[in-house]
Amino acid sequence: MDQNQKKKAAAEAALEFVKQDSIVGVGTGSTVNFFIDALATKKHDIAGAVSSSDASTERLKNLGIEVFDMNSVDNLDIYVDGADEITEHKHMIKGGGAALTREKIVAAVAKTFICIIDDTKHVPILGHFPLPVEVIPMARSYVAREIVKLGGDPAYRQGVVTDNGNVIIDVYNLEILNPVELEKKLNNIVGVVTNGLFADRGADVVLTGTEQGVIKS
Ligand SMILES: O=C[C@H](O)[C@H](O)[C@H](O)COP(=O)(O)O
């Protein structure tokens, strides 16, 4: 079974959490694309979706799923999204696809965060995957200098503009022993919109696609 088959299996397993007539929070990325395709098979059973990126919105609409404005939704049962890394404490690094800020907003509103991944995403300590930080463009150099003070190696993600019109700094060479604390410290730097640590609000349910099938934790 290859990585894509594992992602697809995890994504399809998330369907069991989708409640009748509900609005579903939808993340971004290759694993979520499998979820959106699966969700389309239930489109007449749900009220619609809220989306964390222009890319997911387009895919949802193309498959006939109504996408609501986030400001018109005051609560969500579930948010389904992938991750770039996840620990046994369900802390994550996200934002490999630059969608971290909208992902964090939708996740914040949802009661249950369901993380769908293949088994390569599990790590003992976060930080091997470079940590994405979304930054207001004029603050880019300042934020990079502040990140160096925190012990990271910042790299500007060339050519990438987020859906919010900002830039991404990827932080290399971090061994993140206290993700909740680092998440707060990075968010305190002026010019940072948000960072890709999802630790203060991590996942609630993890569905991992493996050779042996989907494991729920
Ligand atoms: O910005 C992108 C998101 O945080 C994705 O959820 C994350 O990068 C995982 O993506 P994929 O499912 O493609 O591995």
TrEMBL record:
UniProt binding sites for substrate: 28-31, 81-84, 94-97, 121
Organism of this sequence: Brumicola pallidula DSM 14239 = ACAM 615
Protein known as: Ribose-5-phosphate isomerase A
Presence of the UniProt keyword Zinc in the record: no
Record-level GO cellular component terms: cytosol
One biological process term in Gene Ontology: D-ribose metabolic process
Molecular function via GO: ribose-5-phosphate isomerase activity
SUPFAM superfamilies: D-ribose-5-phosphate isomerase (RpiA), lid domain, NagB/RpiA/CoA transferase-like
